[in-house]
Amino acid sequence: MTVWATLLVTALRMLPVGPAAAQDTRAVAAPKPNGTPAGARPIDGPPPPLAPDTMARDAAGRVTVRAIRLTEPLTLDGVLDEGLYQRGLPVTGFIQQLPNEGAPATERTEAWVFFDDRNVYVSARVWDTAPETEWIANEMQRDSFQLINNDYFSMVFDTFYDRRNGVAFMVNAIGGFFDFEISDEGNPNSDWNPIWDVRTGRFEGGWSVEARIPFKSLRFRPGSAQLWGVQLGRRIRRKNEMTFLTRVPISAGPGEFRISAGGTLVGVELPEKNRKLDIKPYTLGQVATDLTSTPIKANQFDGEIGVDAKYGVTQNLTADFTYNTDFAQVEVDEQQINLTQFSLFFPEKREFFLEGRGIFEFGRPAGNVEGGPRVGRSGAGSFGGGDVPTIFFSRRIGLQNDLTVPILAGGRLSGKAEKFSIGALNIQTEDQPRAGAVATNFSVVRVKRDILRRSRIGGIFTNRSVSTVAPGSNALYGLDAAFSFFDNVNVNGYYARTKTSGLESDDRSYQAAFSYNADLYRFQVDHLYVGDHFNPEVGFMRRDDIRRTFTSAQYRPRPKSIKAVRQFSFGASLDYVENTTGRLETRIAQGRFETEFESSDRFVADVQRDYEFLRQPFNLTPIVMIPAGGYDFSDFSVAYAMGEHRKVSGTWSFQKGEYFDGHITAISYQRGRVSLTPQLYLQPGFSINRIELPESTVTLKLLTTRITYTVTPRMFLSGLLQYNSSNGSMSTNIRLRWEYQPGSELFVVYNDLRDTSSRRTALLENHAFVVKLTRLFRL
User: Fold this and answer.
1) In the predicted structure, residue 454 carries a pLDDT above the cut 60
2) How far apart are CA 479 and CA 363, in angstroms?
3) Residue 339: how many CB atoms within 10 A of its CB?
4) Is residue 495 within 8 Å of 510, Cβ to Cβ?
5) Residue 155 C-alpha from the chain's centroid
6) Any idea what the Cα angle at residue 654 is, between residues 650 and 659, rounded to 5°?
């Protein structure tokens, strides 16, 4: 693994690369506290402001913010009553991204950035002319996605000042908070859970925020005097308004992602010693029954202990270690109904693998190419279960044949060194005869280098010491690149090969893609090749032996004469897939119309014509099979999505038409939410698919209900009930999570799985009651 890392870094160092802002002749050097230049890194903005000013804005709209060193304690209570708020002028003058790009914000926002020897602080007065009863604040749980559909204040720090990566923090008026990492101006990782604290308050005219973020929760360049990127933002949900400190293009998607459009933060000084050592041991006890195991387990008690550790090798590189890793606290997978011949994709949920995952992503385009959430069926798809292979998929580690494989120990090194992003992972698993797994070592090395202003190149190497399909090991190596030009042009691609005994020929995969994602027009063309023997055993691959071409175009006007409508979208796409010998296997032609209303509701209608060639029969259910052969069929669907800020929200959809050599009628309600109070909500959902085939008729049903009660932002109780008729399963997951102090948690979990294929009763397969306690020691 070390040899591969050395080769990748050496190759990338040979490429000539200029500084991110070298083309900006107006850039100036960042001053040190004594006024001397901080080095060669220029400021992408106006010169730093002088006290008492805390911000400077130039004619191009670029902003430089000055952080203020605290000379007196700041009480974190959400009440901005200290004298320092009168002595330092606020950062203000926010600008709309939505709905009117470039216009002044309709509500005033004032912010300050402070620091001391341990923390950086952000405070804000969030003015609002509406009464509190009209504010949207219906979520308190930490890291709940619903928070982004509330009124919130956000702060983004680009701590390496590379203008493409950052960390973001959000808070709403009732103290709910959300944090995530941003990689390459997109690809958010909401499972990054740093230690930080925030309080909110009220004042006559709005609400206020005080946030404290320890330096030890961040990574940054070496040196005492720091130069960071910064973006401050605000969402006013009832107006569907997004505003930021600097101008962000309306086509950029979530404005927090467009790191390169942010301002510059100067004045932050770090203490001499800021390396961290976090040690987090755990203890676990469980009582479990498993009637499907051999021998049968009945109320068997097990106990485990283990430890995770995190060490700051430098200010910008962190090493993680884990011993006897356990994921009993993880929520169960949400069930899906599979109406295709391909495997389903289930996302990773285990904390150790989720943190820092952006570094390991391979082949993805830079930026927020998708442009926002999609309502209705997704069509061809790209990453996360689409036809493009996921080169590194961490669920291949510690899981096999839907069973858990014990992880003995592992380590990870990740961070940034100058223009290089570096990630290295090594995990050792143990034997698990029931899953058919033997002790296996997994290794991954990922290196990326920043080039130009918003682009990158990189390489990856993965290795599995024991292949699952052939004697010996399985390895993969690949190179990728992603280029972003102007505001909306993206070009990306990759080339990868695998090495498996007996699968030596046609073992490569490559992709080249171009997209133009402006607000009015969008266009995409993508070509993908996956060889018949391409075998990424530390990744996820939906299908092999294909040559795929995909193209789409959209026209998205914003009608000024229709007040109720924010934007129309007229689109068409063609997905064309052959095998490597030229035989047509998939052809999907789709026409699509979408309306986004000012209320944030959406209406979508599409018509789709499909051709599918089945190489072999596939089982729709254990007793219903669709024969091999070629099939032409077409259908239509309509969907209506209620704005997610409403007390009752969700997406209703209806589909009707042909399905292979039969017919389908489907109705579903997805992403449902019923807010009973800001602390209590339900998330119902269902999907009913009636399929009429020449040989038989089958109705597939999926029913889910989740209920969550949030006691405080750091403590919640949730229950998830799922029924899936396609496999006859009914599962229950009840989970209490309490972060009793930052970074230390108590989990109480109950899981129950039953077989409903018998009409008389739901037969127990397994259940378990688990208690897990962790304790963080930060040294």
Assistant:
1) yes
2) 8
3) 15
4) yes
5) 18
6) 135
- The tokens describing 208, both together, are 């206020």
d(CA 716, CA 728): 30
Residue bearing tokens 């102007």? 486
Residue 190 banded pLDDT, cuts 50, 70, 90:
confident
Q: Other C-beta atoms within 10 Å of 493: how many?
A: 19
In order, the DSSP letters of 631-642 are EEEEEEEEEEEE
- The single-letter DSSP state of residue 623 is T
- Amino acid occupying residue 389: P
| CB distance 700 to 337 below 8 Å | yes
In sequence order, what are the beta bridge partners of 740? none
Task: Report the candidate in 239, 259, 264, 234 with the shortest Cα–Cα distance to residue 249.
Answer: 259
DSSP H stretches of helix in 227-312: none
Q: What span, in angstroms and rounded, lies between the C-alpha atoms of 563 and 554?
A: 22
Instruction: Return the residue matching tokens 């290295």.
Output: 424
CB 21 within 8 A of CB 453: yes
Q: Which residues of 424-438 are buried (b: 16+ CB within 10 A; e: fewer)?
A: bbbbbbeebeeeebe
Share of the chain above pLDDT 70, in %: 91
- Give, in order, the Cα–Cα distances in Å from 198 to each of 78, 123, 170, 201, 214: 8, 9, 10, 10, 12
Q: Domains in the chain, ordered, with CATH?
A: 44-266 (2.60.40.1190)
- Contact, 181 vs 137, CB < 8 A? no
Mean pLDDT of the region 67-84:
94
Q: How many CB atoms lie within 10 A of CB 715?
A: 18
DSSP-assigned letters across all residues of 412-429: EEEEEETTEEEEEEEEEE
Exposure string over 267-302, b if 16+ CB within 10 A, otherwise e: bbebeeebebebebebebebebbbeeeeeeeeeeee
Check if the beta carbon of residue 521 is closer than 8 Å to that of residue 251: no
For residues 678-684, give the mean pLDDT: 95
**Beta partners for 638?**
605, 654
Predicted confidence at residue 38, as pLDDT, reads 42
Q: What is the DSSP letter of 435?
A: G
Amino acid at 727: N
